[in-house]
Amino acid sequence: PTYRFVIVDRRARVGLITLNRPQQLNALCDELVSEIGAALDAFEADDSIGAIVITGSAKAFAAGADIAAMQALSYIDAYRGDFITRNWERVKTCRKPVIAAVAGYALGGGCELAMMCDFILAADTAQFGQPEIKLGTLPGAGGTQRLPRAIGKAKAMEMCLTGRLMGAEEAERAGLVARVVPADGLVEEAIAVATKIAANSLPVAMMIKEAVNRAFESGLQDGLLFERRTFHASFGLEDQKEGMSAFLEKRPPVFRHR
Ligand code: HXC
């Protein structure tokens, strides 16, 4: 496919999606979100890709859903068209690991997009926020649900009710981001982390992703059962035999299903 608002690239086994709508600080219009979906489709179909990085620019990961496009939207069009959220599910349904590499603003839908990824690596310049209240609306792609799960009710409620921004350091302390790195090395670091993930067995990475996500969808007993069944299933993989043989033979593993 050809892309207008994203740049799609690869570094060895890592797929890289760079949001590229600089005049609007990567504001998320329908077309941009569809293009993220198309890029994910292509990477997911490509057996030589083991992990994916989504990033923006130094100034903005994404400053939110496109306010110009939303301003005149009617209720009936938003409701019948399932405004924006329909497309967004594609990030959530991606079965390969997806890392958000966030520098600058990740606001509104931008923060929600980052939270939909498997984890966030933040530049020290990153600023997160759900400022929708200041526009007379509320988060619509997971902000009121994923933010409290990530940072707890008190901080999430405060952020959604005031619309204040949260810097990278606070975001790391609160558990919103996995790690903070210097801004000028952000994308390279994200690619390095993704490369590490992609060196392992892909089916195992997929199982781990599914199992961790279960923690947010089920009670502890059900989650533990899901984990145990999946753990048992891993013994059916050639890569488990290879990984454990390699350890016992004191050599690096050569995973077949990458
Ligand atoms: C459309 C946007 C935009 C947005 C920025 N721009 N954010 N356009 N939608 N979300 C445009 C500006 O209009 C401006 O265009 C250009 O990008 C540069 O922005 P400035 O405001 O001039 O830059 P700056 O002064 O540096 O301020 C940066 C900013 C500010 C703090 C990020 O732009 C801002 O507050 N943006 C809106 C953030 C927001 O409210 N996001 C939530 C949206 S609601 P021109 O043409 O003037 O150069 C949402 C709901 C999600 O996300 C629902 C589920 C999908």
TrEMBL record:
<keyword id="KW-0456">Lyase</keyword>
<dbReference type="InterPro" id="IPR001753">
    <property type="entry name" value="Enoyl-CoA_hydra/iso"/>
</dbReference>
<dbReference type="InterPro" id="IPR018376">
    <property type="entry name" value="Enoyl-CoA_hyd/isom_CS"/>
</dbReference>
<dbReference type="GO" id="GO:0004300">
    <property type="term" value="F:enoyl-CoA hydratase activity"/>
</dbReference>
<comment type="similarity">
    <text>Belongs to the enoyl-CoA hydratase/isomerase family.</text>
</comment>
<dbReference type="Pfam" id="PF00378">
    <property type="entry name" value="ECH_1"/>
</dbReference>
<protein>
    <submittedName>
        <fullName>Enoyl-CoA hydratase</fullName>
        <ecNumber>4.2.1.17</ecNumber>
    </submittedName>
</protein>
<dbReference type="InterPro" id="IPR014748">
    <property type="entry name" value="Enoyl-CoA_hydra_C"/>
</dbReference>
<dbReference type="InterPro" id="IPR029045">
    <property type="entry name" value="ClpP/crotonase-like_dom_sf"/>
</dbReference>
